[in-house]
Specification:
Blueprint (H helix, E strand, L loop, with lengths): L11 H5 L2 H10 L2 E3 L6 E3 L2 H9 L4 E2 L20 H8 L16 H10 L4 H22 L4 E3 H17 L7 H6 L16 H22 L5 H6 L11 H32 L1 H9 L4 H12 L5 E5 L3 E3 L2 E3 L4 E4 L1 H4 L35 H18 E6 L20 E6 L3
Parallel strand pairs: 2-8
Antiparallel strand pairs: 1-2, 3-5, 4-10, 5-8, 6-7, 9-10
């Protein structure tokens, strides 16, 4: 059986290691219909950009979940665009930013921008610097740790908490959702903590917003509770809470995966770590190459609103398409020797790990800052970074998320 005959969405071997699938896709052509679920797989970089740009032909209503969404069929004489507009709230995650289309997306995207003002990001960066060193101090002398649990997850959790104005006195509670001291290698609980974290977010943010609207304070949460749409309308508290929870969920999970991907590279290629210690200015480009080759999102989805064509392939209205970001970031028409990691790759930033256009990730700059500062501090303060058991590493069995389940590392504190 050829790799393309396997299901991209259910085959465990493909879910664990999609790289051969990506390679076969690009050899087949930039657009190909996956047989198990009938999804049109869009694997070329330019074709992915076309998919992201054209919201007249392609709706984001299925963006996060793709073939898991049961899109209602049109009534006689009704267009697919009318179905999406009329029945959006019936579909899973249909009212989140990731699933919206203009003009509603534009309104809510402007609201999201209020969370990422230059002032707020500058304040948050100071917190990031202190947090990185604080967490490193907790595990630098252990010798062997699960990096995902001692650094990646608590770091990204608390960075987003600070950005969104969670009071400092509640940070310990937020971190406790990750479990107790779960930094030991082999602890299985780390694979399931995200469910507990995000189950707790909605009631917490609802309480924050309601309290700050009733009794404003001079704090970040009060400013967020008071943000308005561009037309001056005050959003429902539920709109603020929903947006905060989505930003929290997306920012925490994906950035933690990115940090683990980068540390795996450093553990496998110590010469890269040595080069970056000698020339820390190269860390930003190192992060871009990690995003290109091991970005935390395999892809997102669109619904064809009309009969259309992309890369010469006919796509019927009502079809689901996947922007296969993991394949597009290895497009040989754009990236030379695309499967090779090159920390100095000149065009690494052309990756589409954060999406493109209206749906470009609003937290992209924050994620890049988190990764850059993390690797600056980790490389400055840790030495002898090695994988504990390279053959035992496993990846999340998801057709959306690309990331290690955990990352056991040997390491030691660098001499002052």
């Amino acid at each position: 059986m050829s790799v393309l005959e396997r299901s991209f969405f259910t085959d465990r071997e493909v879910l664990q290691d999609p790289i051969p699938y990506y390679r076969a896709l690009r050899e087949r052509g930039p657009v190909w219909r996956e047989p198990s679920m009938g999804v049109f797989m869009v694997a070329g970089l330019e074709e992915v950009l076309e998919l992201y740009r054209d919201h007249e032909r392609f709706s984001a209503i299925v963006g996060p979940l793709g073939p898991l969404v049961q899109v209602p069929q049109p009534e006689p004489g009704e267009s697919w665009a009318e179905v999406v507009a009329r029945r959006r709230h019936e579909m899973p995650m249909g009212d989140t930013l990731m699933s919206m289309d203009p003009p509603e997306h534009t309104r809510h995207r402007a609201l999201a921008g209020k969370f990422f003002t230059p002032r707020r990001l500058q304040e948050n960066e100071q917190f990031i610097l202190g947090l990185a060193d604080e967490l490193i101090d907790e595990f630098a002398d252990r010798g062997e740790v699960n990096f995902d649990l001692v650094y990646a997850r608590p770091f990204t959790l608390l960075v987003i908490a600070d950005l969104l104005g969670v009071p400092r006195e509640d940070h310990a509670t937020f971190r406790s959702w990750l479990g107790g001291d779960m930094g030991n290698v082999g602890d299985p609980e780390g694979r399931h903590v995200a469910d507990q974290v995000f189950a707790n977010l909605d009631p917490y943010f609802t309480r924050y917003v309601e309290e700050r609207r009733a009794t404003p304070r001079d704090d970040v949460m009060s400013r967020l509770a008071a943000v308005r749409f561009p037309d001056g309308a005050l959003p429902d508290a539920a709109d603020i809470v929903r947006l905060a929870v989505v930003l929290f969920a997306a920012g925490q999970e994906t950035t933690a995966r990115l940090l683990c991907a980068g540390m795996r590279v450093l553990g496998e290629q110590p010469h890269v770590a040595d080069e970056l210690r000698r020339a820390p200015a190269g860390i930003a480009n190192f992060v871009e190459e990690c995003l290109r080759l091991e970005g935390p999102i395999k892809g997102s989805f669109r619904l064809a609103l009309t009969d259309t064509r992309i890369a010469g392939v006919d796509v019927p209205a009502g079809s689901i398409l996947m922007a296969v970001v993991g394949a597009a970031n290895r497009d040989p028409r754009v990236f030379d020797d695309p499967d090779r990691f090159d920390a100095k790759r000149a065009n690494a930033r052309r990756n589409v790990a954060f999406g493109h256009g209206e749906h470009f990730c609003p937290g992209a700059n924050l994620a890049r800052t988190e990764a850059r500062i993390s690797f600056e501090r980790l490389l400055a303060r840790l030495d002898d970074i090695r994988l504990v058991n390279p053959g035992a590493l496993s990846y999340a069995e998801s057709f959306i998320i690309r990331g290690l389940d955990d990352l056991p590392l040997h390491l030691r504190r660098r001499a002052a």
